[in-house]
Amino acid sequence: xxxxxxxxxxxxxxxxxxxxxxxxxxxxxxxxxxxxxxxxxxxxxxxxxxxxxxxxxxxxxxxxxxxxxxxxxxxxxxxxxxxxxxxxxxxxxxxxxxxxxxxxxxxxxxxxxxxxxxxxxxxxxxxxxxxxxxxxxxxxxxxxxxxxxxxxxxxxxxxxxxxxxxxxxxxxxxxxxxxxxxxxxxxxxxxxxxxxxxxxxxxxxxxxx
Length: 209
Description:
The chain has 209 residues and is mainly β. The protein has one domain (5-57, 67-196): SOS response associated peptidase-like (hypothetical protein yedk fold), CATH 3.90.1680. The protein contains 4 helices and 16 strands. A hairpin with a 2-residue loop joins β4 and β5 (46-52). The longest helix is centred in the first third of the chain and has 8 residues, at 11-18.
């Protein structure tokens, strides 16, 4: 799963890379993206700013609604279930990513290990989006089984889409899109760091739906 990623390009660079119209002029987002914060996506031929994570409203012990929580990842084998079905059928998107991070090491002392598509400083991850009452437009990443390079760190990873698969993901049938939601077999670049996973405002990871 992914609850932290980097995207170091501006909206104009993203628009050029994806041959899309830039609707995110003046977008405000950090180079490191956290759940519930804004990031860029490519949807309907346009670069757009949206919040990362579909909101889920939980209830407290007395049944009172709590502050919504962002669900940032969608499992490939759950895309046709009730929570994701409409977005998967109608609103697929591409998420520009430079690197994503996973926690590695001893619990309580886990550090950040960064992954990227080898030889690329930007690549596309499969995503879904929808309009929400809580946060406006929101997006989520699609996850598949981890590849051999990272399976010892986490059992899931983002679905990386090579350029030739972009149109199939965005415009193909549900069956065609499901066939693309699979483990990446391309080489990854791995960067292990000493930075602690839990630091500052880092939100806790949430289970995939």
